[in-house]
Amino acid sequence: MKNIVILGPPGTGKGTVSEKLSKEYGFKHISTGDIIRKNQAEGTKIGKLADKMINSGGLLPDDIVNEMVKQEIIDNKNSIGLIFDGFPRTTSQSKMLDQLLNYNKTPISIVINLAVPKHIALQRVLERGKEGQREDDNEISFNKRWSEYESQTIPALRYFEGRERTVNIDGTLSKKDVYDEFKKIIEGL
User: Fold this and answer.
1) 92: which of 66, 151, 159, 186 is 20 to 30 A away, CA to CA?
2) N- to C-terminal Cα distance for the chain?
């Protein structure tokens, strides 16, 4: 089983790349954002909590997110591999994922950081917001999410450096070139 973690700031295209890789290679795409948005649409307890937190640019607590991800891993234990899209976002989540996958003897194969400067990421989020794809695609939420990326996700990424194979991809390349870089990495695993 190949397990791939894709990290990066908001607006970098993690979800788009993850979906394409999932379709092409048969990986199970695990997006905490998608899981949370599904709970919001269904009006579940987690969804209601997420409404309060996410629409203001915040994140759900680690314990709730970790439990959602653990369940996805259990539900997909027979998959050829898992793509974690934007998860883990904190060092605590990184440790949980690393320990759980190692315990199951299916360690992380690679951690890929999709790097994009703030001004480009903001432009992408605002464009996506014009299309009405997500409620939190606005400058206020973006700035809060970017701040949380810097304070929480960068340390989560550093947790993996030296433990797992970690690589950066320049997210300012064309969509095709970014995807080709991902394909080269995955085919080399």
Assistant:
1) 186
2) 11
In angstroms, the CA 141 to CA 146 distance is 8
Do 171 and 13 touch, CB atoms closer than 8 A? yes
Which domains are seen in the chain, by residue range?
2-178 (3.40.50.300)
In order of 33, 126, 133, 172, 175, the CA distances from 120 in angstroms are 21, 10, 18, 8, 14
Q: What is the pLDDT along the chain (189 residues), one digit of tens a residue?
A: 999 999 999 999 999 999 999 999 999 999 998 888 888 899 988 888 888 886 665 678 898 889 889 989 999 999 999 999 989 999 999 999 999 999 999 999 999 999 999 999 999 999 998 887 777 789 998 999 999 999 999 999 999 998 879 999 999 999 999 999 999 999 999
